[in-house]
Predict the 3D structure of the following.
Amino acid sequence: MKLVKNAAGRMVPLKVNGQPQIPFKGIGKFKPGGGTASVKINSCADFPDDGNKVVETLKVALKKAGLRDGMTISTHHHLRNGDILTNYLFDTIKSMGVKNIRWYPSASFPCHEHLLRYLKDGTIHHIEGSMNGPLGKFTSEGKMKGTGILRSHGGRYQAVQDGEVKIDIAVIAAPTADPFGNATGDRGPSACGLLGFALADSEYANKVIVVTDNLVPFPCYPWQIQGNNVDYVVKIDSLGDPSKIVSGTTEVTKSPDRLLIAEYVAEFLEEAGIMRDGFSFQAGAGGTNLAFAVYLKERMKAKGIKARFIRGGSTKYLVEMLEEGLTDFILDGQTFDLEGVRSMRENANHVNTSPFTSYNYHGKGNFASIVDAVVLGATEVDLNFNANVVTHSDGYLLHGIGGWQNCLFSKCTILAIPSFRDRIPVIVDEVNTLVGPGQLIDVIITERGIAINPRRKDLLHKLKNSTLPVKSIKELYKEVIDICGKPAKPKTDKKKIVAVIKWVDGTLLDSVYKVK
Amino acid sequence: MKSKKAYAGKRGDKVRSDCYIELKIKRTGGLKIDLKSKVHSMYGESIVQLLEELCDHFSIFHADVYCEDFGALPFTIMARFESAVKRIDGDCQIEYLPLFNKANKYVSKNDSLRRSRLYLPGNEPKFFPNAGLHSPDGIILDLEDSVAPSEKDAAQILVRNALRSVDFYDAERMVRINQLPKGLDDLKYIVPNNVHVILIPKCESATQIKNVEREVEFLREIHKIKYPIYFMPIIESALGVEKAYEIATASSSNCALAVGLEDYTADIGAERTKAGTESFTARTRILNAAKAAGIQAIDTVFSDVSDTEGLIESVLEAKSLGFEGKGCIHPRQIKTIHKYFSPNSEEIEKAKKIVLAYDKAIREGLGVVSMGSKMIDAPIVKRALRIVNLGILNGQIPTNWKNN
């Protein structure tokens, strides 16, 4: 395999799974010409006039969709760890004797461990999406037939628009749908909130199958997925385990160290002048992220400040802020708890968004860069502020990229992370896998102090007289190494690439190697 | 060595930052080290190296060493190994001392602020490295109630190693020893390792304090220790309350008297209530004894971590009685305790004026401090200075406030 050094100094292959690749050229440097991918032209004359596209089973739908060896099948991850459909889908594909599928999920979860058998027996050739938990371990050990490709949520949309990924059949899990194929995620026994991650699939796949466990008479309104893009509708008993799709209630972390980090984040946002009337921020569902929103809320209330919008993953904490008038809008990418789902259904100012509105490199701008501050996690951050979210310090793939890369374009990107976890340093000299260039990462907030990227002279200036523990990243690194010792690098086989990391524009940012 | 096999440390799914070590001494066959570690790829080699060094240090040349590691830091691995060795050979006098962290050399003062003191179970290494980040005035490594009787030996060694290598970020370094006489045996692990305050539980007589003092003096001499070591007797029984003044004045090393209510209420046969009427007399008597002896009075812990309102009330009540600090069982209590033990803005403004008047009197060489037509007595000046100092420590007043 021929490797070249890209603009970030990382070695990447020129071909992956037989497809030519472009090495990373720098942020905002790569602008492909030509047109976006198009879909096969359809005629409504080919579809039933009564609008009833229901077929008996998923198997029948797949057969009608022309499923065969080597196809690309896409799924979305709004059902999270409660997803039963994807496992059932591949059971069905296997029963049809079809092989070498390129699986294109928007993310995978531990529940998809079931699919290991299909990676082993060749039903699935490789995964382009995220390789979490057991799938990550399988991939890292070099056992997957093809090479994994990790993309951000925005990158997934971009890859479809670029024609790099041509989805043959999209299978969309719809908590509520009508026979025409209109579908929504905000209601039904398997309600998950929204279906934004399946938007590109519904628009660009050759064949679109909507699978629901709550079929309602036409029209299903509001429709998040338009039936006009849908070929077949299948009714099954259950899409998933509701308790694992959204949690009944999300709780703020009880860890004192994480709460300390969250408190620092809130204080930083106030002292840096980011928390001001009409501002915006993004908060996720991780323990620390949830807690920082709670602390920020206290500070906003004390100062009488109101946000214009908050970007979710929404939780009851963000919903409370919306209902108490501390923000005009929630622009939601996914809902994490029942309160989030309820609010999205009932409150017109709780708006559902998609990778197209928020993250897409080929959009004429996107929401992510409008956000004043975003608070994210990471598995590793290095002395150049480069960060990693996909591999752990032992070299194993463990997480997907999600919207993480896309969010880095916010006006102030904050990584709120512990400086080490159980002797595993999170602040390192050099990241094992580069997923986010340090150029876009502004602030690292740990329990041991806050490091501001030297590029952000404005923030350094604002925090000059702060009582917050502002330190250099080198000081933080030294503290961690003094406590943990200097870790050895993971032993990997530099000749065997098991997965590649795409940048948001579709170029190759880094490679992930087989763990020895 | 009599018995040939022993183990120390912890293992299991929920164990973090600790390790389990099994040591089997043999007659022949050399060393066999078997390591399973959660951080194998990063620290596997260095852990094996450390285990070899430990074997060498304790002159163990033929043994099976099995180590299951859950991200233990080196000071913990060292402690667990030493515990295993000493469980095989109870007479072994050899110690394996981790390097003394330079950051740990600071000393304390008699009248240091002691608003909050955070209890850390002495045999739980996972809580140690980050405890100081929450900025308690003091950190207590506990050898007493939080340590199972079967693990007392392991906790002594672990606490010793922690005092040497863990940075507690300027918090006062305290250790609660076991109830006497067992507690006397704890002293040799802590006195040579820059302990600042020794908490002596369940005190009921001056003799107990004097016994601790004698042992500490003995160890100070052997180890040529110059830094001060203070005592904080904890009164937790009816008899202790009766003897409070005797205890408070038993040693010039006493810096404070503390109240322990769980045991006290049990001792008098009462239920511990939120209102606390059953212990009010005991608390004020202990407080009075402390003040009479010229040392600090420290209140008991507030044990409901989730009840912030209750904690605030409890702190305000303790402050109003004259207590200067409280125990904490969770880092999240620290900020609240500091905030509500601190003076309010009215108190601060008044104190600032008094301090300025005092400065003026000194500048002008006057024997009397006065504000307007009013004369200010010395105790009031002292109180004002203390309030301003607290205000500065709490970040309520800038250090350079006199310039503004």
About this structure: The mean pLDDT of chain A is 95. Chain A touches chain B at residues 256-257, 259-260, 393-395, 421-425, 447-448, 467, 483-485, 487-488, 490-491 (CB under 8 Å). The CA atoms of residues 184 and 224 of chain A lie 5 Å apart. Chain A has two domains: 50-245, 256-495.
